[in-house]
Backbone:
């Protein structure tokens, strides 16, 4: 499950895949907020199962009340949003279970949220999971380092 999405060198951070599945370019996500990178840059994943784990070492900043999304922050300040499916907020938490609370310290592989993938496929616009670096404007670069691998570097501040 934990294949690398973003690499680490010097002042850079590794972000692992939070879910098993196939990488989808953000430009192919059927929602302009994600496709046009209005919330930041990243990738999307077509999930193979309903388990979302922490892609980083850091802390849980927010679990949305509907449990369809989680905000994380690395020790170096990289902010990550994992959004399960599109238009899943309307499910009002049905089919989602959070396994952590805001303020929790996490490491790669720690279970964050589980969801009923069949229910998401039935009720949501899409089951694709955008993984977004929400403070992209503070990043020096976000570069692809290999097939399904991305390297992300931060500016110093």
Residues:
């Amino acid at each position: 499950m934990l294949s690398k999405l973003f690499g680490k060198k010097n002042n850079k951070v590794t972000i692992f895949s939070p879910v098993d599945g196939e990488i989808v370019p953000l430009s192919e996500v059927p929602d302009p907020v994600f496709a046009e990178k209005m919330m930041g840059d990243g990738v999307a994943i077509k999930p193979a199962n309903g388990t979302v784990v922490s892609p980083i070492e850091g802390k849980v900043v927010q679990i949305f009340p509907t449990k369809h999304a989680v905000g994380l922050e690395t020790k170096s300040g990289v902010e990550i949003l994992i959004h399960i499916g599109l238009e899943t907020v309307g499910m009002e938490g049905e089919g989602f279970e959070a396994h952590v609370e805001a303020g929790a310290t996490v490491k790669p592989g720690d279970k964050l949220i589980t969801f009923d993938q069949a229910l998401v496929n039935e009720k949501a616009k899409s089951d694709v999971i955008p993984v977004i670096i929400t403070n992209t404007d503070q990043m020096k670069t976000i570069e692809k380092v290999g097939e399904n691998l991305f390297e992300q570097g931060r500016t110093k501040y």
In short: Residues 149-157 have pLDDT under 50 and may be disordered. The CA atoms of residues 40 and 134 lie 5 Å apart. The chain has one domain: 4-138.
